[in-house]
Amino acid sequence: MDKSEKLALSLSGLLLIVFFGALMYAAAAEDLEVPTCITDMDPFTTDTLFQTSEDTYELHMIARMWAFQPSTIRLPVGSTVDMYVTSQDIIHGFKVENKNVNLMAVPGAINYVRVRFNEPGEYFFACHEFCGAAHHTMAGRFVIEESVDEPETIGG
Amino acid sequence: MSDYSFRFTKSSKYLNAALIIIPMVLLFIGIYGGLMQTLFRAGIIQSDPFVGGDYYKGLTFHGVLNAIVFTTFFAVALGNALIPYSLKKPLNTKVAWASGILMLAGSVLAAIVILMGEATVLYTFYPPLKAHPGFYIGLTLLVVGSWVAFFNWIPMYLEWRKENEGKKTPLAVVGMMTTFIIWLVATLAVAVEILFMLLPWSLGLVDQINVMLARTLFWFFGHPLVYFWLLPAYVMYYVFMPKLAGGKLFSDMAGRLVFMLFIIFSIPVGTHHQYMDPAISSQWKLVHGIFTFAVALPSLITAFTLAASLEHAGRKNGATGLFDWMWKLPYFDKEKWFFPFLITGLIIFIFGGIGGIVNASYSMNTIVHNTAWIPGHFHLTVAGPVLLAFLGGSLYMVGQFMGKKIRFKGFAMISPYIYTIGLLIMSYGLKVGGLMGMPRRTNTGASYANPDSVLYQPDWVAYIDMSVIGGSIMFIAVVIYLVSFFGTVFSKSDSTEEGSVVTFPISEPLHDEPSTWLRNFKPFIIILIILIVLSYTPVIYDVITTTYDTSLPYSPNSPVPLR
């Protein structure tokens, strides 16, 4: 094997190892993970939002043709949300703007992510898996405000 | 070994020309669909003559015709050309015609059902959206036809190996066999999905199916599919390009190693398309992520080997100094019009490859999954290096097999450059839009890009408009290319009896090592099977044990199930 070829091969391998190491660091130090199997949650068919501790909420969201239930979630700054998502009919999905939240909603399975909102503002999300004729109208938002008297959801 | 000619039978020449011309027509219909989609997405049009107002019908035929039909036909045509040519053995034309007819029948059936609006399920056909059974049958025939083509080559290959013991198999043959070994293994999973799940369910024989299981089987097939697209382009890069540039392939062993690495790592990676899915444990997703990083290695080796080959060519063309060789390549030589199709693809693939590593990067995928970034990425791969190499290869082969000189060579030469400019603009728009949260597969023109809609997202509009500009330039480039292509097809034949032989630009190696350990597919196929079992058993187990319900079929037009 040519000397430069060996060097190129080693550098390529090294590059990939460095990339991979960065991902492992992110997972360990920053808790950046991808969704995993959810086994401790019963299937649900209605959407709810409830408080589980001082600034932690649990949200059960249902995606359906062609709306998210709920579509608007109003919460105070500093809220942590345990989001459980499923679909009532076909496959949907969404990514929350400016957040590390990206979930597929698949019928027959529950998806989960934990997200914390530290900044006030509107966090938009649009359905990102083709789900039929009105797919492009299926969207929602988190509204995070400095003071929310009563956390609420709209579009149930 | 280079520059020799081989006499194909008349029948196999007709077949190969047909396998190139027919999908070229289908490709153009698909590309027209692509242009219309950029206009729909920007809200410039609300309907077009082909699909009416149904954006998603157009999106389905754009994806199916361009990414599945055209690519499969071209891969088969390239194999039908290079395998007999490199092994100096005649093709069994009866079997080859049977394969071509199956593929054509399947594609036409699927296309009709799509245009009737009975299969608006996009090219991933995820259940529980249900397509007409004709769609699933059509795809099955296309795949089976491509298997028949492959089974036609296997005895030729084995016979050659027997007759030439101790000789290296020509690299072109190794590349084409690799392409179809991966294809065969990968399509087995989608065959299971279609024949045992989707088709009986679509016909009403089965009531409900497990959506996650179907989806997982799809991605078992879906990622190796991209290597099925890419590898014929790699064959042309390794085998044709160094010679077209005026040099030699830097390392023969690198080429062989790359193909074997693709056999090992192409398939146990599919779950990286499902990082954001439920019902699969994150640690198994990570395993697939690690293998995906491994499959980046052969592409990095390729980047080095091809650059080194081009440097060698540049120096032979009179370059001195460190970087001068870059300017001594036949970028604008009309007589070497094939070279631009390959070099532009390689440049695009720098961006395509980097984007691919981002997508594969586990938690980083959260930022891009299913956003417009994804079509931005795969237009830089399948609609970049793959399409351009296939267009160049199609023009070259149609000239060879019809015995015609290429007409309008200047048009052919310039089209990949124009296309590249358009593609980079379009993909930039899609990718940046995606990072801002713009979803893929979405008719934004009817909502997010419409100022009258409550969902209007003003921040996205500039990026949606960029894809209109880029997409229009890409369309114009393809039209310019087609002038040369159909100009050649419909020109008067200048074939004489001596001119009826076929020649391919086969590069000689610069470094030619014996590489005996890379000569046999068997050990690599065994490793592949082991890796598939290790990586997919736990994934399938997770899917089956953690899903709690199965699904009835749905039409895209109603939230009420079809039965």
Condensed summary:
The complex is a heterodimer of chains A (156) and B (563). With 156 residues, chain A is α+β, with helices and mostly antiparallel strands. Chain A is built from one helix and eleven strands.
Structure commentary:
The complex is a heterodimer of chains A (156) and B (563). Chain A is built from one helix and eleven strands; from the N terminus they run H-E-E-E-E-E-E-E-E-E-E-E. Chain A is α+β, with helices and mostly antiparallel strands and 156 residues long. Chain A has two domains: 33 residues; 107 residues, Immunoglobulin-like, CATH 2.60.40.420. Chain A has a six-stranded mixed beta sheet, with no helix packed on it. In chain A, strands 1, 2, 3, 5 and 8 form a five-stranded mixed beta sheet that branches. Chain A is globular, with a radius of gyration of 20 Å. The model of chain B has no long low-confidence stretch (mean pLDDT 95). In chain B, the strands form two sheets. In chain B, strands 1-3 form a two-stranded antiparallel ribbon. A two-stranded parallel ribbon of chain B has the order 2-4. The N and C termini of chain B lie far apart (63 Å). Chain B is an all-alpha fold and 563 residues long. Chain B is built from 16 helices and four strands. The chains are: A alpha+beta (156), B mainly alpha (563). At the A-B interface, helix 1, strand 6, strand 7 and strand 9 of A face helix 6, helix 9 and helix 11 of B.
Task: Please render the helix and strand layout as text.
The complex is a heterodimer of chains A (156) and B (563).
Chain A: H1 3-29, E1 48-53, E2 56-64, E3 67-69, E4 72-76, E5 79-87, E6 92-96, E7 102-105, E8 111-117, E9 121-127, E10 139-145, E11 152-154
Parallel strand pairs in A: 2-5, 4-10
Antiparallel strand pairs in A: 1-2, 2-3, 4-11, 5-8, 6-7, 6-9, 9-10
Chain B: E1 5-6, H1 10-41, H2 55-87, H3 93-115, H4 133-163, H5 171-203, H6 211-239, H7 241-244, E2 249-251, H8 252-265, H9 282-316, H10 338-360, H11 365-368, H12 373-379, H13 382-402, H14 409-435, H15 458-489, E3 502-503, E4 509-511, H16 522-546
Helix pairs in contact in B: 1-2, 1-3, 1-13, 1-15, 2-3, 2-4, 2-5, 2-13, 3-4, 4-5, 5-6, 5-8, 6-13, 8-9, 8-16, 9-10, 9-16, 10-12, 10-13, 10-14, 12-14, 13-14, 13-15, 14-15
